[in-house]
From TrEMBL:
Biological function: Plays a critical role in recombination and DNA repair. Helps process Holliday junction intermediates to mature products by catalyzing branch migration. Has replication fork regression activity, unwinds stalled or blocked replication forks to make a HJ that can be resolved. Has a DNA unwinding activity characteristic of a DNA helicase with 3'-5' polarity.
Official protein name in the record: ATP-dependent DNA helicase RecG
Gene for this chain: recG
CDD domains named in the record: DEXHc_RecG (cd17992), RecG_wedge_OBF (cd04488), SF2_C_RecG (cd18811)
SMART domains according to UniProt: DEXDc, HELICc
InterPro entries, A to Z: ATP-dep_DNA_helicase_RecG, DEAD/DEAH_box_helicase_dom, Helicase_ATP-bd, Helicase_C-like, NA-bd_OB-fold, P-loop_NTPase, RecG/Mfd, RecG_dom3_C
Record-annotated membrane-spanning stretches: none
Species annotation: Thermosulfurimonas marina
Highest classification ranks of the organism: Bacteria, Pseudomonadati, Thermodesulfobacteriota, Thermodesulfobacteria, Thermodesulfobacteriales
Xref: Pfam families: DEAD (PF00270), Helicase_C (PF00271), RecG_dom3_C (PF19833), RecG_wedge (PF17191)
Segments forming domain Helicase C-terminal: 560-732
Length: 805
């Protein structure tokens, strides 16, 4: 990045950083932010990449008039976009590849790696241990860092701690005795000083041959200081006469992840063979005008420069994985994902749907019977949902909101609309206990509305399953609530009109589609609910085919939950607070990560701890136990006892993470809090604070000490109840797969792209992909048909894109 651009970037970000300080506490006091930023943008240097300039211009649009939460999100986006600034690369573009060559190009890239010059079967077996089986795998085996070996440094200029390349003449060499061990030492001089080279593991004959006095050598490695002299331990050695010298010195050197049995020099050599022989086959079929507009490079060019950067490349950007070459690869991956999501979205939007009448008596009467008024956010979300339901094509909407914000009531109102129109409603939850909790809650609402509902899970007795399935097929049941059992082959609906899916990210995309396909001849409306605050970064990818409704307001009278953090030795203080709350007539949860004691992990187990609490800590109170291995009837019995007040304390595993609603519970104790993700802790915290009573979440950390990274991570929960801030932090720490529990689905796997680091690239890719689909909705133009092939190869199965397969 040029100095001029750096200076402008700091000026542009300064008002944004001020507005975001102290969790946006100062934002209401900031005046004319949009006008200030627009003026600064107009002063941006000409070297600012044009695509980014346009994106910033777009994100500034209407900033002042946004609601507070949306304004916070937009400021966060602007900060993410300007964390690094892009300057268009100067490299010329290669000719656009012929789409007819696609299969031939793919075949070349599938060449087994053993056929790369210098590899062979033995080395191929070692590469396979790192997942490198084909030429394409080797091309995508990217450096983990870069080392500056562009300049040979005089010995007198060396500094301890730096990595350096030194050339000199061998003065003497041989083994020396050093504190009971033999060390091989060589001294080299370049006329400005003497440098010692040492080996603690060595083959004496080989080193004696290389370091004969008078021989000139080039060495590189980390410089240290010992006994008043500079030294390098186990340096890399080069022969100045080696014809392949330019691969190892005089350049920005790629440093690859270690592969056992393969030296860095050998790895660089075979990667160069692969790059020179096969990189041209890695053709980029993204229209070149898009890449030029965004200041990016075609795939093959970006990969070549990632492996062997040009001499003037930005070393800092390379090491931070923010170079134009890194961004070009990320853009390629994001572009095809967003194209797939956009294609799926447009296909669903054009499918035959149901135009529901949304001004029904059933909805009106039910709202009149509710003992509370909907919040403004609930009313806004309901309005958006009903507007979609009235259209003659399928609704695909995400209803997102923090725990306890009232999503269930809004979803039920949508269900009533479908039922009044003569259609059936299916609600699918990821676990049996959550399905049962929904059934308990919805049954009360159904009773108020005079609607028939039933539960269908794998744990039901066979006779009850048959009964429910028959009633569903004949249309006697208006609402069914269940788990993945709902999309089994023998489940039939007479007239399915609305599918509600809770905690969608726990299902595979194909499972979601399988339930929708239970509606014959017409696509039902789909409402996806999540209490997991999904950062915008992820919402763009995971829910790229959905419109989003956000409930960002809690019901009146709710007090924020107070969160306190304790070390294990301070547990007595935490449980004293539990006893005090129970004395007031309230109840408490105690959550642990394990059901039974583990020999491998020194963790408290739920069964062991429930017994200890009952016998030693609270012998005068009633302690119950709930976990996933209990039968549905046992779970129901325990939960009923807790809700009725027959139990004071419920010890549980994370089965109570979502869906459990006991307003009298005011304390949530979480043992081994460091074992949970931040978003999961936030979900668990949401089980309390569901009334006007003050509630508490007590985090007990066993394996972390104050000041450590893990402790600081847990402190985030004591500082904020903003689920989106917590989710962003969780996403940054754990990555999307762990954050969402989708690792097992293989859904969000990228070779290079990272949704957090490359957020600005993700936004740009989405914008370009959706614009392309506006011009060619089916990708039917001759020049775009190749894009369908690539989509089929990369995303067809995972995104249920049957029309491109």
């Amino acid at each position: 990045m040029s100095e001029e651009l750096k200076v402008w970037r700091e000026r542009f970000r300064r008002p944004l950083l001020f507005a975001a300080r102290k969790d946006f506490a100062l934002l209401p006091k900031v005046k004319d932010l949009e006008a200030t930023l627009r003026k600064l943008l107009s002063e941006a240097p000409e070297t600012l990449e044009e695509g980014l300039r346009s994106l910033l211009e777009e994100k500034l649009g209407g900033l002042e008039g946004l609601p507070l939460e949306e304004k916070k999100a937009r400021i966060s986006e602007l900060l993410a976009l300007t964390e690094d600034l892009r300057e268009a690369p100067s490299e010329d573009f290669p000719p656009y590849p012929d789409p007819e060559d696609y299969e031939r190009l793919r075949e070349e890239l599938r060449t087994p790696v053993q056929y790369v010059k210098g590899v062979g079967p033995k080395l191929a077996a070692r590469l396979a241990t790192r997942g490198i089986h084909t030429v394409e795998d080797l091309l995508y085996f990217l450096p983990r860092a870069y080392e500056d070996r562009r300049r040979i440094i005089p010995i007198r200029e060396l500094r301890a701690g730096q990595r350096a390349v030194v050339q000199g003449e061998v003065v003497l060499s041989g083994p020396v005795q050093f504190k009971r061990r033999r060390v091989y030492e060589a001294l080299i001089s370049d006329g400005t000083g003497v440098l010692a080279l040492k080996w603690f593991h060595f083959r004496e004959g080989l080193l004696k041959e290389i370091f004969r006095p008078g021989t000139r050598v080039i060495v590189s490695g980390e410089v240290s200081r010992f006994g008043g002299r500079f030294e390098i331990v186990h340096p890399e050695i080069e022969n100045p006469e080696d014809p392949a010298l330019d691969l190892h010195v005089g350049r920005i050197l790629p440093v690859y992840p270690a592969i056992e049995g393969v030296s860095p020099k050998v790895l660089r050599r075979i990667v160069r063979e692969a790059v020179e022989g096969y990189a041209p086959y890695l053709a980029s079929f993204i229209p070149p005008e898009i890449l030029r507009r965004r200041g990016l490079l075609p795939l093959s060019e970006a990969l070549k420069r990632l492996h062997f950067p040009p001499e003037d490349a930005d070393l800092e950007a390379l090491n931070r994985e923010r170079s134009v070459y890194h961004r070009s690869l990320a853009f390629d991956e994001f572009f095809f994902l967003e194209l797939a999501l956009g294609l799926r979205r447009s296909r669903l939007a054009r499918a035959p749907g149901i135009a529901f009448r949304t001004e029904g008596r059933l909805l009106r009467d039910f709202l009149a019977k509710l003992p509370f008024r909907l919040t403004r956010a609930q009313e806004r979300a309901l309005k958006e949902i009903l507007r979609d339901m009235a259209k003659p094509y399928p609704m695909n909407r995400l209803l997102q909101g923090d725990v306890g914000c009232g999503k269930t009531v809004v979803a039920f109102l949508a269900a009533l609309t479908a039922i009044e129109n003569g259609y059936q409603v299916a609600l699918m939850a990821p676990t049996e206990i959550l399905a049962e909790q929904h059934y308990t809650g919805f049954r009360e609402l159904c009773g108020l509305a005079g609607v028939e509902a039933a539960l269908l899970t794998g744990g039901l007795p066979p006779s009850r399953k048959r009964e429910v399935k028959q009633a569903l097929a004949r249309g006697h049941l208006q609402m069914i609530i269940g788990t993945h059992a709902l999309f089994q082959e023998d489940v039939e609906f007479k007239r399915l009109g609305l599918v509600i899916i809770d905690e969608q990210h726990r299902f595979g995309v194909l499972q979601r589609a399988a339930l929708r396909e239970k509606a014959r001849g017409v696509s039902p409306d789909t409402l996806v609910m999540t209490a997991t605050p999904i950062p915008r970064t992820l919402a763009l990818t995971l829910y790229g085919d959905l419109e989003v409704s956000l409930i960002d307001e809690m019901p009146a009278g709710r007090k924020p939950v107070k969160t306190l953090l304790f070390q294990a030795r301070e547990r007595a203080k935490a449980y004293a607070l539990v006893r005090e709350e129970i004395r007031k007539g309230h109840r408490a949860y105690v959550v642990l990560p394990l059901i039974e004691e583990s020999e491998k992990l020194d963790l408290l187990s739920a069964t062991e701890w429930a017994e200890k609490l009952q016998k030693e800590v609270f012998p005068d109170l009633r302690v119950g136990l709930l976990h996933g291995r209990l039968s549905p009837l046992e779970k129901e019995r325990v939960m009923r006892a807790f809700k009725r007040g027959d139990l004071d304390i419920l010890v549980s595993t994370t089965v109570i993470e979502v869906g459990v609603d006991v307003p009298e519970a005011t304390v949530m104790v979480i043992e081994h809090a460091e074992r949970f993700g931040l978003s999961q802790l936030h979900q668990l915290r949401g089980r309390v604070g569901r009334s006007e009573r003050q509630s508490y979440c007590l985090l007990i950390a066993h394996e972390v000490s104050p000041g450590s990274e893990a402790w600081r991570r847990l402190r985030v929960l004591t500082e904020t109840t903003d689920g989106f801030r917590i989710a962003e932090e969780d996403l940054r720490i754990r990555g999307p797969g762990e954050f969402l529990g989708t690792r097992q689905h293989g859904y969000l796997e990228f070779r290079r792209a990272d949704m957090i680091r490359d957020y600005d690239v993700l936004l740009a890719a989405r914008e370009e992909a959706f614009q392309l689909l506006e011009e060619d909705p089916d990708l039917s133009r001759p020049e775009h048909r190749i894009l369908r092939k690539i989509l089929a190869e990369r995303w067809a199965e995972r995104l249920h894109l049957s029309e491109v397969a």
